[in-house]
Amino acid sequence: MEELEHTCPHPRTTLTEPAIFARESTCDCRAPHEKLTIAQARRGTPVDRPVRVYADGIFDLFHSGHARALMQAKNLFPNTYLIVGVCSDELTHKYKGFTVMTEHERYEALRHCRYVDEVLRDAPWTLTPDFLEKHKIDFVAHDDIPYSSAGSEDVYKHIKEAGMFVPTQRTEGISTSDIITRIVRDYDVYARRNLQRGYTAKELNVSYINEKKYRLQNQVDRMKEKVRTVEEKSKHFVYRVEEKSHDLIQKWEEKSREFIGNFLELFGPDGTWKQVFQERSGRMLSYALSPRESPCNSPPRELSPLRSPSPPSPPARWYNARPSPPTSPKGACASISSMSEGDEDEK
């Protein structure tokens, strides 16, 4: 470990430690700094001889596009030491324009990027051979789009001609200019938001009339939000009532179907009540037509001594000889005379 600390140009204890700031003096790398080709750098270098890659920029409003470009620069070679140069406010305002973040804010933002090993403050706008030699830079990483500035069509032209340029890819859809465009486009929204958060109109450079307009719009928005909240609550209440009523109707339908089913089962055409009624009616009819006989093993009744037995029945012949009752008075007289004659013959 001690040997590694002596050989490594800038030993770092943990990955979470912020990147160091570059020193004003030249690189103090202990290993001899020989010029490398891209092929040699891609094959890998000794631990004590990392490939020193330089990437520069403004890095205003540090975003994911910046971080992805630095990630590509860090991963160009197996053993890479990434130096990031950040231009000062004075130089940036002269050649590019006003920045949102100050140079110290931009320095600190770069220090806390996980891919950065060293931050070079007040980086030059154009890379000279003396600057490259002073910091022992092997390769310069930047996107391949020609960067015209400071009277030059491409400030990296001489780096490309020297074979020290390694291109990276831009991330589409995100840039500092895009973010500023969004802020300018939605300026009223952000101004109203910051007024609501306690910033003064003077701090926001907002006129008196615009301040009153923004505050009135904030009040209107708050009223709209309250109305929207009440509507949401009422919709939720109505939904709950509808849900409860639906459940009650469903339960009522289930109970009514159950009640109707039980009623039909009891009183329907083939219901239990009809079967019971038929069985009872059949038993009553059978009792009426054929009453129950006395048990065969019941003892016979004895005749009372005071009563005499009934006279024997007349012969069947007498019943058959008896004429049928007359249907008219003459027939009745004839029958009487015949009966008297019969009596005289028997005598």
From TrEMBL:
SUPFAM superfamilies cross-referenced by the UniProt entry: Nucleotidylyl transferase
Record keywords: Lipid biosynthesis, Lipid metabolism, Nucleotidyltransferase, Phospholipid biosynthesis, Phospholipid metabolism, Transferase
Pfam families assigned: CTP_transf_like (PF01467)
MF annotations from Gene Ontology: choline-phosphate cytidylyltransferase activity; phosphatidylcholine binding
Function according to Swiss-Prot or TrEMBL: Catalyzes the key rate-limiting step in the CDP-choline pathway for phosphatidylcholine biosynthesis.
PANTHER family: CHOLINE-PHOSPHATE CYTIDYLYLTRANSFERASE B, CYTIDYLYLTRANSFERASE
Region (Disordered): 289-347
Catalysed reaction equations from the record: phosphocholine + CTP + H(+) = CDP-choline + diphosphate
Enzyme Commission number: 2.7.7.15
Domain of life per record: Eukaryota
Sequence similarity: Belongs to the cytidylyltransferase family.
Lineage: Eukaryota, Metazoa, Chordata, Craniata, Vertebrata
Boundaries of every Cytidyltransferase-like domain copy: 54-182
Organism encoding this protein: Menidia menidia
Protein name: choline-phosphate cytidylyltransferase
UniProt-listed InterPro entries: CCT, Cyt_trans-like, Pcy1-like, Rossmann-like_a/b/a_fold
Pathway: Lipid metabolism; Phospholipid metabolism; phosphatidylcholine biosynthesis; phosphatidylcholine from phosphocholine: step 1/2
